[in-house]
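User: Some background: our group keeps a shared notebook of sequences we're curious about, and every so often someone picks one and asks for a predicted structure to add to the entry. Today it's my turn. The entry only has the sequence so far, pasted here. Could you supply the structure so I can complete it?
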Amino acid sequence: MFVHFRMQTNSFLLYGANGYTGRIIAQMANEYALKPILAGRNESAIKALANSLDLPYRIVDLTDSQALSALLKEVPLVLHAAGPFSQTSSIMIEACIASQTHYLDITGEISVFEAAKLYDTRAKQAGIMIMPGVGFDVVPTDCTALYLKDRMPEATQLKLAFAMIGGKLSHGTAATMTENMGEGGLVRENGSIVRKPLGHKGFWVDFGLKKLFVMSIPWGDISTAFTTTGIPNIETYAAASPKTFSLLKWQFLYNWLLRTSLVRNRARKKIKLKPAGPSDEMRSKAKSLVWGEVQNTAGEKRSVRLQCPEGYTLTALSSLIIIKKVLEGKLKTGYQTPAGVYGADLVMEIPGVTREAV
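Assistant: Of course. Here's the predicted structure to add to the notebook entry:
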């Protein structure tokens, strides 16, 4: 049951608006009759973007808690787009609870989802919703998980896989991956999150558009799909070359090196030398693919696959769709997941998404 509030506004705070994904969201907001207040700490970048889109802006650093709280009191909702979220999300959530402002973000980090869950009681007391992962991480996979759970309520195992065709990483995504280099993988086993080697499993998946090899990675659904479905055993996979999969068998020899500041700093420098992310033309031609499968104790299986817009485009669309719903008062207080509140068909509201049970 939705909690309805009196807010009738098209305004929200977009923090981290000058980042690659933040810019796309700001540029597309008008398509949903939304008018974000652009915010961040880089005044020249934020001001230039705001002027180009004829949008209001505010400059505030996350470390200035007083200024941040004052700013949040001006809006009913913040979309937090400034990562790495493992370093920034808790600061913003604390400020949202203090100012009674709904919190959304575009993270895909398991640790961030798990940390956000701990704010559930305080968020309910403040009358706000905390919903991390309103972008490609994890809307299409979260909806896939619930869709499969609805088809097989007694499912005890869930596998989710995704692939990108024709796209590339943004600086922000690459930076988050750098922070996790050498840390290995995670799965959900009997309800608990368990550490495993990165790529400890791999297999071929028919995504419909293409058959691709996938390997296990620590995707956000290890946290969120369990919250949404209650399925106790969950594994997440991403497309990778079989060669990469084979090389990972030796990771126990070099993971320690990947965790050193020397290697991570070199990786950060290389990221900064590359383009901020895929061009508009590349995004318009690229696609993201999602596959999911559930299994019960009898060994019976159900599976489904999705074809979606490119990942950053999908993130902008899904976050704006959810923002629109929240501003219309369609929300549940406390910690929530996208499909948990808006259902398995939320992903079908995103233009260009198709779904096929197989």
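Suggested note for the entry: The two ends are 31 Å apart (CA to CA). The chain is about 40% helix and 25% strand.
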